[in-house]
Amino acid sequence: xxxxxxxxxxxxxxxxxxxxxxxxxxxxxxxxxxxxxxxxxxxxxxxxxxxxxxxxxxxxxxxxxxxxxxxxxxxxxxxxxxxxxxxxxxxxxxxxxxxxxxxxxxxxxxxxxxxxxxxxxxxxxxxxxxxxxxxxxxxxxxxxxxxxxxxxxxxxxxxxxxxxxxxxxxxxxxxxxxxxxxxxxxxxxxxxxxxxxxxxxxxxxxxxxxxxxxxxxxx
Length: 219
Known about the structure:
Layout: H1 3-16, H2 23-30, H3 34-50, E1 55-60, E2 63-68, H4 73-79, E3 86-88, H5 90-102, E4 105-106, H6 107-114, H7 119-127, E5 131-136, E6 144-148, H8 150-155, H9 167-172, H10 175-178, E7 185-186, E8 198-199, E9 216-218
Antiparallel strand pairs: 1-2, 3-9, 4-6, 5-6, 7-8
Helix pairs in contact: 1-3
């Protein structure tokens, strides 16, 4: 196949895939060498950026994905007003953050940090694919160890766990100005920019058992 056709073929696969697609998958589907695929992907990244397209090619969750640019989040969001938006309560975000930074982590360790029962929160995060069971600790009762998933990486536009900001960087963030806009949305540059913004409301984090319903709602 010609270089021009190979490039067009990879573009077609990126466009058709609803999830980030890895070089190994592209190689398996097309028969192309991984090194050649990497060169083409790099050229596409540069091409889209230099031509100021309405979308960009990002490396996230161990693969590559076409995503609309954050500059157009409001307009793209208006297009998807009728579609469900995923929301996380503050309690849910706190639990997810603990797991992301301390994985593999036990439920008891999460609850020690938060000071409340996290059973409902963990169940909901599991059902939505944001966390997974990594195994069991060799200890009395063999408690479950939790960690994040590729869905987590994709949602937050992270290449891998090494892309997480350090705790020092998080502490230095002025979240009111740098992350949260006037509506309380945390913009993440998702593929459907207006569809999957995160919300951190004030309902979570109370005493006693946390409600799974209040963690993540689809409306």
